[in-house]
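Re: Re: C-alpha cell formats

Sure, here are both.
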Amino acid sequence: VLFVIRNRDESSVDMVRERFEWGAFFRGYASALKARDYRWLWISRVLFFFGYSTSTVLSLYMLQSYIAPALSATEASATAPLISLASLPATLIAVSVSGRLSDHLGVRKPFIIVASILMAASLAVPLISPTLPGLFVQSIVTGLAFGIYLPVDNAMFIDVLPDPARAGRDLGLAIVAMNLGQALAPALAAVVVSATGGYQLVWGAALVLVALATLTVAPIRERTVADA
C-alpha cells in the first residue's frame, strides 16, 4: 500500500515496443553476463547466498546433534525461530544506515566487502563455539552482515547494469543469482553431512563460499554513485 501511495506510475500507452522474439529474449540474458562488472557481481551474489543458505538449511538438526548440550526435537523446534528472530534488530538497524551511508560516501564495494567479511566471521563462530549461545551470536552477526549487504548490493547492481534500457531484465537476472545460491545449498549441505557424518564442515564450506564471494567483488571497477 505504501509503495502504491508513494510512487507515481507512468502510463505505458504510448511506449514504443520492439517486436518480441524468443531468440533475442534468451540471448539478452546471456549478453548481460558478458558484461564484466555485472558478471563478477552476479557470481559474488550466487556465492554469498550459497554460503549463507548452506549454513542455515540444516539448523534444526544442528540444534539436536551439533551443539553441546544438544536439544531435544521439541526444544529445537521452539528454539530455531528464536535464533532467526535474534538477527532481526541488527538487520533493520544496518539496512536503515548502510544504503544511505553508501550514497553519501559515493561507494559500494567497501560495504559489500565488509558485509561478506562479517558474514564469513559469523560462520566461524559455531566452529569455535558449538553451543546455543554461539548460534545466537552467529545469528546476530549474520543479521548485521545482511543489513549492510542487501541495500548496497542491490544498488551496485543498478550501477553496473550493462544496458539501462533492459534494466528490468538484468535486475531480474540478479534475483536469479540469489535464488540459485539458495537452491544449491541443500544439496551441498546434504553431501557434506553424508560424507563426513557431522555438521562441522557444513560451517566450513559455508565460510569458504562467502569468502569467495568477497574475492569475486574485488575485480569490479568501482564507479562513484554520481558517475553511475
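Second one below.
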Amino acid sequence: HPSDTAWMMKEPKITIIIPCYNSEKWIEQCAMSCLNQTYESVEVIAVDNESSDKTVAILGDIKKKSPELIISSAKNIYPNCWDEAREEGLRLMTGDYVMTIGSDDYIDLEYVDKCMSVMLSAPDKIKALQTPIQGMQQRGEEFVSAGIIQHSYKSKEQFKKLCLTKCPVNTPSVIYSAELYHNGLLKTKPEVYGGAADYDLYCNLVDNDVFIYPFPQWLGFYYRWHPDQATWNVHKENRNYDVEIQKYWRDKWKM
C-alpha cells in the first residue's frame, strides 16, 4: 500500500503544547519529560499564560539547555482555563499531530512512541486517541499513585450517551491529527464554558463524526492532583458547566 510506505519513510511530527500558569513547582519535570521523548520527531511549545511566579524564568533556563524548546505567551482572559494558551500553541505548531499537556503533569519517555504506534497503525481511521491516566496524589512532600482513570466505549452512539451524563475523555491525554485543527474542529468556547470548554469540544467532535479512540492500556501519562489545579477552581465557580453542556447537546441530539 503506497501510503503505508510514505508513513514509514517520514516519521510524522508531533507537537506537544504546554500551557503554563504559575507552574514553578512542576514545569521543569513536565517540560523535560516532553523534550526527552524517545520518539524522534517532537516539537515542544510552552505557552505562558501571564504567570506571576518564576515559571518564565525556569522556562528560560530549560531553553538554554534545550534550545529546541519554543516559548511563547498568551493573555490570561478566561479563569481556570488553558484555551488561550493552547490556541497560541496551535497557531505556532508545525506538527502532523498535536497534544496538550497540563504543566503540572508529566509523561514516561516512551509515551509518545507508544501513542504514535497506535495512531499510525491506522492513520486514515484514528484522528484522535485518548489513553488512561495515572492519578498522582500528594502525600506530604511526595506524590503517590492514586490509581488509573480510564474511559471505555465502543461506538459514536455510546460515546454520545456517555457525554450526556459525564465527560468521557481524559483531556490531557488526547492526541489529535493536526488536520482536525486545520479543518476548524478544535475550536473551543471558553467564553461560554470556561474551564469546561473541552467537554463541549468532545461533543462537537463526535457531532462532526470524529471518534476519539479510547486505548485500553495505560501508556505512561501521570496526572497530578493538587489544591492549586484549575480543575478544582472550576468546581469552586458555583456554576454547573457540565449541566449546561449536557442540556445543549441533549437538545441538539434529541436524546
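The radius of gyration is 18 Å. The first helix runs from residue 2 to 9.
- S.
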